[in-house]
Specification:
membrane; transmembrane helix; transmembrane; 2 helices; mainly alpha
């Protein structure tokens, strides 16, 4: 019989929650900029390969891809930045 590992604490990591909130803000402001910068290329590519009928599907798909990419890239970046900041403060204090 296997036992599930026990976790200490409540299971919520404040650093992770802060990284998610900051990533949501970055996605809200940065996602549309990235989308508008690249959508012309995506539409041209979709129309040349799949025809004008599937261009709206490509636009919706590209919007979802940009949103997911910008969120996860920002989350990873903020997670690393927060860990670095916490470690820098800890090194100065101790």
């Amino acid at each position: 019989m296997q036992h599930r590992p026990t976790h200490k604490g409540s299971g919520h990591d404040p650093k992770e929650a802060m990284a998610v909130v900051l990533a949501l803000v970055a996605t809200f402001f940065g996602g549309p900029e990235l989308y508008h910068f690249t959508i012309g290329t995506v539409i041209a590519f979709a129309e040349s390969r799949y025809g004008a009928d599937l261009a709206p599907v490509a636009v919706i798909g590209w919007a979802l891809i940009v949103a997911a990419f910008s969120f996860y890239a920002a989350r990873i970046t903020f997670d690393i930045a927060l860990v670095s900041a916490i470690m820098a403060v800890a090194m100065r204090l101790f």
